[in-house]
Amino acid sequence: MLAAERFFDPDPRQLSTALDLYALVRDLPIISPHGHVDPSLFSDPNQRFGNPVELLLQPDHYVLRMLYSQGISYERLLSKENPRQIWQLFAEHFYLFCGTPSGIWLTHSLEAVFDVTEKLNGESAPMIYDQIQTSLSSPAYTPRNLFNKINIEVLATTDGATDTLKHHQIIRSSGWSGRIIPTFRPDGVTNLEAPGWRENIDTLSTVSGVTISNYSSYIVALEQRRSFFRSMGATATDSAAVSPATEKLTNAEADAIFQRALHGKVTPTDAARFTANMLYEMARMSVEDGLVMQLHPGSCRNYNSKIYSQFGADRGFDIPMSTEYTHNLHPLLESFGNQPNFTLILFTLDETTYSRELATLAGAYPAVKLGPPWWFHDSWNGMRRYFDQVMETAGIYNTAGFNDDTRAFLSIPARHDVWRRAAANWLAGLLVRGVIDLSDAETLVVELAAGLAKKAYRLS
Question: How far apart are CA 314 and CA 321, in angstroms?
Fold first, then answer.
């Protein structure tokens, strides 16, 4: 079982203070403003999760990558046949996750959601599988009911620019009270090297009702789609890029590259400049329509070409790269960084940039907020490093609180719980050292748990 005092500093005074602060936020509703849970889970009120493997194992690339690193093939892990055998295999290797965030998240899900108190291993695997499967067959464990059980106030999904948002429309028209909103993800049509880019442009033309023949009509189509997403409750966009480079191309330059791309003659240099231009354009559009802009650069995607070709994206082979922000973002910030209606939330996979670049940018520009430690840094130690490297320079109120960034629905409460514990422990350390007083600590722990995310993502 998970220890009630897990993660807290063992010093008696700090431990007592941290427990008191954590008690203030432990049961607060979850604000999940950035994630990748499939909205189709919630469109049918009678939807069921199939089995424990489909729910807890196969959507989670952190789990898959660890098992694969130990020689267990994706063929075995992702098979649709014999889920009991896959669960048994997983349980026999669960010891691999000892001390890792995945181990904490999974154990939390088993205990808090399914009331499993037995340690998962090869011997207990059949019993735990049956216990979870029995729960999943109960009406209490439909995705909608679990949404309420987990106590989620708002859940943002991530949806491509060409998505019709069919499932969001069904959810809204059903009368269900759960708040699930889309997030506008333009990468499939702004990255000229994205798989199927040309087909994506045709789809963009269809769903927007704009005949796309040049750069100008392409921009109009994107603006139309953003407006549609806003009408469906979206408050943010989400852009990924290898580099955060930004550049304002002239319309003639952008159209020349766009025309080459339409005819399959784009070069890597074209693609890099066009992406930089489109990050600039996304900022310009956000100033005009109020959608919060999220940017997370610095990932070498699908690094293992064999796994990507056989099993697709998001299988655990996105590898962090060193990233430079100061010079790359300068064109965008020169134009929009002082705009009162613009919010740019920056994320990084390169922790070396926290105190050197990101904290200083957020601590100066009114438009810039720092996203939380995520991906490989969504961990106890990652959070500790973040607090220590960021907060003194940026200030707590120039950060965006926490988001879980997960595809694994039931890991959401576990991830938020770790963050709330980390925040309580860090603030307790400041309090016992006399840096802040009790009133400040009590206010800040609530802000870090929920308030900052609500404000940054305009969810109030």
Answer: 17
- Residue among 381, 431, 422 at smallest CA distance from 401: 422
The pLDDT tens digits for 427-444 are: 999 999 999 999 999 999
- Which tokens sit at 295? 């940017």
Let me know: does 83 contact 77? Beta carbons within 8 Å: no
Report d(CA 403, CA 41) in Å as an integer. 20
pTM: 0.96
Residue 51 in tokens: 């089995």
- pLDDT band of residue 2 (cuts 50, 70, 90) is confident
Q: CB neighbours of 309 closer than 8 A, spacing ≥ 6? A: none
The residue whose two tokens read 């955060």 is: 244
In 137-200 the beta strands, taken as DSSP E runs, fall at 152-156, 159-160, 180-181, 184-185
- Count of residues making up the chain: 460
Taking each helix axis from N to C end, the angle separating 215-231 and 251-262, rounded to the nearest 10 degrees, works out to 90
* pLDDT at site 445: 98
Q: Which helix (H) or strand (E) holds 299?
A: strand 299-300
Q: Report the distance separating Cα 170 and Cα 384, nearest Å.
A: 41
151 phi, psi to nearest 5 deg: 70, 50
Residue 439: inside a domain: yes
Q: Is residue 391 part of a domain?
A: yes
Mean pLDDT of all residues in 143-169: 97
Angle at 53 between CA 51 and CA 57, to 5 degrees: 145
Q: Which of 89, 111, 141 is the last residue of a domain?
A: 141
Among 136, 174, 109, which residue's Cα sits nearest to residue 48? Answer: 136
352 in Cβ contact with 377 (< 8 Å): no
In a shared domain, residues 339 and 420: yes
Q: Which amino acid is at 375?
A: W
Mean of the per-residue pLDDT values for the chain? 96
On whether residue 148 sits in a domain, the answer given is yes
DSSP classification of residue 399: B
